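Board notes, transcribed. Complex of a protein with zinc ion.
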Amino acid sequence: MKNLILSLLIGLSLFATPAFSTSCVNTYFSDKKEVTVYTTKTGNKYHTGTCRYLSRSKIETTKKAAISGGYGACSICKP
Ligand SMILES: [Zn+2]
């Protein structure tokens, strides 16, 4: 019986790894200086929040992520 409790405690401690909280902190700091832009479902451009092209779909992302995802700057709103 004592061994069962011990193995349960060891099992629980495996879930308490610091990996999850570390990735949260990293995301928070890396997002701090990002510019928020918006992409659409069908387009290949990224836009500012007020652009008229966002009337159909509006997917929030960062400028860095949009560029690395192959999106180009909109020529109308010039984000
Ligand atoms: Zn635009």
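The longest strand covers residues 36-39. The CA atoms of residues 23 and 29 lie 10 Å apart.
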